[in-house]
Amino acid sequence: MASYRSAKEFREVMDQIFAIMDEDPEMGPRLRDADVPQRFEFEDLDLVVNIRAALPDEDRNLVWEWTDDVAWEPKVKMAMSSETANKYFQGKENVAMAIARRRIKAGGDVKAALALMPITKPVFARYRELVERDYPHLEL
Q1: pTM recorded for the entire structure
Q2: pLDDT for the residue 1
Q3: Which of 16, 104, 119, 128 has a CA 20 to 30 Å removed from the CA of 24?
Q4: Are 99 and 110 in contact, with CB atoms under 8 Å apart?
Q5: Which among 67, 65, 73 has a CA at the least distance from the CA of 46?
Q6: In this prediction, what percent of the chain has a pLDDT beyond 70?
Q7: Structural domain harbouring 75
Q8: pLDDT in tens, 36-58
Q9: How many domains does the chain have?
Q10: Is residue 137 part of a domain?
């Protein structure tokens, strides 16, 4: 099974993916405008990341911090394994099905999170390119 080698590697990959979404001229502004603060917990790696839309005075679209010590409340909370996250970003995990099958535990305004899916769909191809190029052990 394709898996991350460490929590450090997982963060490294996710930081690149969040940066792609933040900097993309289509995804970034749309995610900022949607303004859905989220908290993701990756249970197997004991990691938490909180993500929010950038404020008007911040020169970016998204802000993320790998801690629960943040100055905002998430509207959506999701918990999953790093394996599920890897499948999702490769376009091989349907979030609604994963929630129904408890591979993703979700709370808060899940409907708002699901509404972001069409916005973030272009990141799948970019993630697969990144994995193929730099992290082939993660390919599914």
Answers
A1: 0.94
A2: 66
A3: 104
A4: yes
A5: 67
A6: 99
A7: 7-132
A8: 999 999 999 999 999 999 999 99
A9: 1
A10: no
- Helix (H/G/I), strand (E/B), else coil: 108: strand
- Relative to beta strand 38-42, strand 76-80 is parallel
Domain membership flag for residue 112? yes
Q: What is the DSSP letter of 43?
A: G
CATH of the domain at 104: 3.30.1050.10
What's the N-to-C CA distance of the chain in angstroms?
A: 8
- Name the E strands within the chain: 38-42, 47-53, 62-65, 76-80, 104-108
Chain length of the chain: 140
Task: Confirm whether 2 is domain-assigned.
Answer: no
Short-list 95, 97, 82, 96, CA closest to 49: 82
Kindly indicate the confidence band of residue 2, based on its pLDDT and cuts at 50, 70 and 90: confident
Q: Does residue 140 lie within any of the structural domains?
A: no
Closest by Cα among 32, 31, 42, 35 to 9: 42
Cα–Cα distances in angstroms (integers) from residue 119 to residues 3, 15, 37, 69, 137, in the given order: 26, 18, 15, 27, 27
- CA torsion 27-33-34-36 (nearest 10°) is 100
Q: Is 37 helix (H, G, I), strand (E, B) or coil?
A: coil
